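Hi Q.,

Before the meeting this afternoon, I wanted you to have the pyridoxal-5'-phosphate prediction in hand. No need to reply - just skim if you have a minute. The sequence and ligand are here:
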Amino acid sequence: MNDDVSDDPERRPATTAITAGRGANGTSLATPLWASSTWVSSGLVDARRRATGQRSAEFYARYANPTVRAFEEAIASLEGAQDALAYASGMGALTTTILALCGAGSHIVAQRQLYAGTLAFLQGPCRRFGIDLTIVDGTKPGAFAAAVEPGRTMVVLAETPSNPLLELVDLDEVGAIEGPFTVVDSTFATPLGQQPLRYGVDLVIHSATKGIAGHNDATLGVIAGNSDLLDEIWGYGVLHGATPSPADALNALRGIRTLAVRTAHQAGSALQLAKELTASPYVKAVHFPGLASHPQYELAKRQMSHSGTVLAFEVTGGQAHASSLLDQLRIALVATSLGGPETLVCHPATSTHASLTPDEQLTAGITPGLLRLSVGLEDPNDLVADFHQALQPIS
Ligand SMILES: *Cc1c(COP(=O)(O)O)cnc(C)c1O
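Predicted structure with the ligand bound:
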């Protein structure tokens, strides 16, 4: 870690984002791209040292890579963590973490509303490996703690804000749970929106593919927490092999440099759009933690420094209406993912959550008229105009 710049508590996160992860650069401002997959040893003693060292650098890229390391150090600085570990994707980070910490007979408590890939992993492969799951309503006070089975629950997994309805989980509550490892997927907030570790949570997870890299040009995941725990997970992860690409780590590190201005602009535009959509006669509901009408508005103000760049809304005429709206949009594009420069709209019922049965979709709040909107970097007035012209009654 670059002690002289990264850990100064007086520095605000937007400043840390400019300097973090530059510790091994020498006088170069940009981090070099280390494409190497292997390093030369000077003899057998040196080879043994490299092969058996914890998190050993300069051995083989599945163990460590200097460009990836710079990205990890930047995330650790932003999250106020001792350390961080990057993976090939958000799912790579999540699956490695779960399989490193759980075995047959383990029990996981997770919230109802989760990224669909996370839920599919917990309900599919985890069950097949004998890892049990209890699903709770993460917005209900005390729900996580009440579901913990002492001695058996290994992981409590929360996601806040959640995908796709932007429900929040109280980080104070999750951080206070004793016994199991507490893990928070903080992708929608980015490290600048909230820092779960400061509430006593053990591990924070991000899909850096989203806002952190921020340009739809990197697929990457990361976890941050204390060094002992990360060393354990590293030991498993080297075998699991969800190794990040150094090129993606470099793109994500560059993304971090502009994260503060991007999220501030996007969060401001998201609030403006959320208000405009609320006023539309063709919109039944708007879900955005920055709106005073959001049931967890007070919690958002308490634990988040911005209300996020993603919102969800429901059109009045169901799926046909959602479909005609998508056809009419001229600036916003129909695509999954979030946190990039382009405003993207997706229809969860037929895309991200298409694998759920209609009943499961309704239980999760995924109605046929629901759309998820990732607000980009366009001029917000153009976005408002685009939605205004596209929101019409279905003929
Ligand atoms: C995208 C996403 C993931 C998965 O990340 P990938 O990089 O696509 O593997 C996990 N959690 C949340 C909240 C996400 O948005």
